[in-house]
């Protein structure tokens, strides 16, 4: 009998920093980010070997109060709260002198980025299927007053044609009073326009904009604003109200139903941007693969 996510969550990961870990084994690297690397790892439990993912973050002594340390704390805080089929499962955390380890569910198929690199443009039914599931994950997060703040294909994992959101290093929670957070944070081509405006608050609506960028990329096969250099993008969005749907930056003609759906998402006024709950009821998602 294989261990469940709950049982794996109770596993006590061990290590002392000077020797190989005593009850888990780190394998090949399967991903990387700005602050960390992700590896496939194995543990032995109930007489069986279980594959897991371990995120390794190096933290030097003079970085204790920097973004890297805050990112680790934020990610663990978030993952501990989550239990949902659209969110990667969290198993544990280990902190040593110069490294932190976050243990999570291993998804063999990898990310949506990898899936698109292998399969190219997705057909409309698969786009709707993945869009619906991404929004289900976003709806769950927002229901917990959590904003992911870095939704992109690299942070969407695919397991048996179903998605799970991952990488919560930039995630933040909002209480009933403070519903917004001011910071220039995320991945530029997936950032909502309000994030670019210095000092202007951004909240749950930034995840909606980023989800729209992912939907567009699944449809066209190109990253948002692929014809624009990354750094002028900030000025163009702020000055010209530029959106990823601008015809001059699209090589492919979008299906009308997709364009209508995305036009609701790419609204510059964040307060008028629809929520995940509203988008899940949209006619665009009322087709196959419910």
TrEMBL record:
<keyword id="KW-0723">Serine/threonine-protein kinase</keyword>
<dbReference type="Pfam" id="PF00069">
    <property type="entry name" value="Pkinase"/>
</dbReference>
<dbReference type="InterPro" id="IPR008271">
    <property type="entry name" value="Ser/Thr_kinase_AS"/>
</dbReference>
<dbReference type="InterPro" id="IPR011009">
    <property type="entry name" value="Kinase-like_dom_sf"/>
</dbReference>
<keyword id="KW-0808">Transferase</keyword>
<dbReference type="InterPro" id="IPR017441">
    <property type="entry name" value="Protein_kinase_ATP_BS"/>
</dbReference>
<keyword id="KW-0418">Kinase</keyword>
<feature type="binding site">
    <location>
        <position position="55"/>
    </location>
    <ligand>
        <name>ATP</name>
    </ligand>
</feature>
<comment type="similarity">
    <text>Belongs to the protein kinase superfamily.</text>
</comment>
<dbReference type="GO" id="GO:0035556">
    <property type="term" value="P:intracellular signal transduction"/>
</dbReference>
<dbReference type="InterPro" id="IPR000719">
    <property type="entry name" value="Prot_kinase_dom"/>
</dbReference>
<dbReference type="GO" id="GO:0005524">
    <property type="term" value="F:ATP binding"/>
</dbReference>
<protein>
    <recommendedName>
        <fullName>Protein kinase domain-containing protein</fullName>
    </recommendedName>
</protein>
<dbReference type="GO" id="GO:0004674">
    <property type="term" value="F:protein serine/threonine kinase activity"/>
</dbReference>
<keyword id="KW-0547">Nucleotide-binding</keyword>
<keyword id="KW-0067">ATP-binding</keyword>
<feature type="domain" description="Protein kinase">
    <location>
        <begin position="24"/>
        <end position="285"/>
    </location>
</feature>
